[in-house]
Amino acid sequence: MAEERFRKYYVEWWKIRKSTIWGLVALVVLSSVLIFGGWWALRNDWFAPRDPSEVPPGAARIISFEGDVRITRAATRETIIVSRETFAAAGDTIQTQTDGKAVLQMVDGSEYTVRPNSSVVIRDNSSLFGGQNIRVALDDGQLNVRTEQQGENSQNVVEMLDSQTRLRPETDASFNADPRSRGGEIRISRGSVETTVGAQSTVITENEFAALSGGKLGAKEKLLTPPQLTAPANASQLTDPAGAGVTVTFNWQDSSSIAVLNYHLQVSRSSFFASDAILVDRGGLTSRDFRLAGMQPGTYYWRLKSTARSGQASDWSEPGRFSVVRGESSALIEVTEWNVERVGGTVHLVSGVTRPGLLVRTQGREVFAARDGTFRLQVSTPQAEVALEFLDDRGNRAGFVISLRNAAVVRRF
């Protein structure tokens, strides 16, 4: 009898133990699903609070920015520095400093690029009754606009000085405004626009240019394109074997059939061509070459624009970059205090500490480490990792692949 009771008790205990195990397995699976789902939702901003007062319907989304970009809110007159995913509401003013640049996306998908040292006001950015109304005002500086397909009732208007310019679908346009001289420029590289000054309207089409002066729109001209940089080659490296500096010869070619009167050359230590970093600012050049002696180790940038005999000036060319390095180098470059801040979507801010003055490069963007060695770069990638390169004026370099999830160094290269 005692043996039978023992066996019965043993069987019942086994049944309880088995059900407990299955319950624990189910609990672990459910917990894993909840944890992964919560992580995925947080990564995709499911739980990010959106204050309707901060994100009004008529807002333009800043999809990319670099350097010092500021927004003055129309409602409060408060000026904020853009450091995360931000919206610009109707009435807000966007200001870029010497090293600032911002790309805005409107409700119709058009993109507005605010160049350095510029001020732009969002007049309207609304969608109503099947149509879309986008209107901005360029107060100062340069604005590039790119439109795609538009609805029948949609309009995209840029106000500048005494003019209003309506952009048509699939158009690339550049606007320059100088409130001090009351002068402006309109360049169309794709598509067409209709510019109204007073009661007179003018259609400016692809590869055409027109200037604003004294409240009048000048005669249209064929668009003068920037010179083509030929030497030194972009991203090239020049060696200074004796440590006395090198002589660099800059060469360029015309990229337009329009007769050119002269050229304007700038050489700088800054990719933004900040005034305190410009080494050469020479206008009136008539030849297509320029020699500069005694260039010390470092990274340099150069750009050109040309002026036609009619007086039309081209946009600046895309900057070229080259480095001067010493003949021998062996210093080791280290980086500490890595940090990754997710701005939103696929945009992150990567920061850290290294030697002061080092050039930090990734995805075509560059910054110099500050006096305390700190640096910060904005990156945009759907990948989980990003590669950064560090260079000094002696030719030393180091590469790091950083995890965007935990700021860990994955590998060096």
Walk me through this protein's architecture.
The chain has 413 residues and is mainly β. The protein is built from one helix and 34 strands. It has one helix spanning 2-43, and strands at 59-66, 69-72, 79-81, 87-89, 93-96, 101-105, 111-114, 118-128, 131-147, 155-160, 163-167, 171-178, 183-190, 192-197, 200-205, 208-213, 216-217, 221-222, 228-231, 236-240, 246-253, 260-268, 278-285, 289-295, 298-308, 320-326, 336-344, 347-353, 359-362, 365-368, 374-380, 385-391, 397-403, 409-412. A hairpin with a 2-residue loop joins strand 16 and strand 17. The strands form five sheets. It has an 18-stranded mixed beta sheet that branches. The chain has a five-stranded mixed beta sheet with strand order 20-26-25-22-23, with no helix packed on it. The chain folds into three domains: 59-222, Sandwich (Jelly Rolls), CATH 2.60.120; 228-326, Immunoglobulin-like (Sandwich), CATH 2.60.40.10; 336-412, Immunoglobulins (Immunoglobulin-like), CATH 2.60.40.10.
Task: Spell out the blueprint of helices and strands.
Layout: H1 2-43, E1 59-66, E2 69-72, E3 79-81, E4 87-89, E5 93-96, E6 101-105, E7 111-114, E8 118-128, E9 131-147, E10 155-160, E11 163-167, E12 171-178, E13 183-190, E14 192-197, E15 200-205, E16 208-213, E17 216-217, E18 221-222, E19 228-231, E20 236-240, E21 246-253, E22 260-268, E23 278-285, E24 289-295, E25 298-308, E26 320-326, E27 336-344, E28 347-353, E29 359-362, E30 365-368, E31 374-380, E32 385-391, E33 397-403, E34 409-412
Parallel strand pairs: 9-10, 20-26
Antiparallel strand pairs: 1-4, 1-6, 2-3, 2-5, 5-8, 6-7, 7-9, 8-9, 9-12, 10-11, 11-14, 12-13, 13-16, 14-15, 16-17, 16-18, 19-21, 21-24, 22-23, 22-25, 25-26, 27-28, 28-31, 29-30, 29-32, 32-33, 33-34
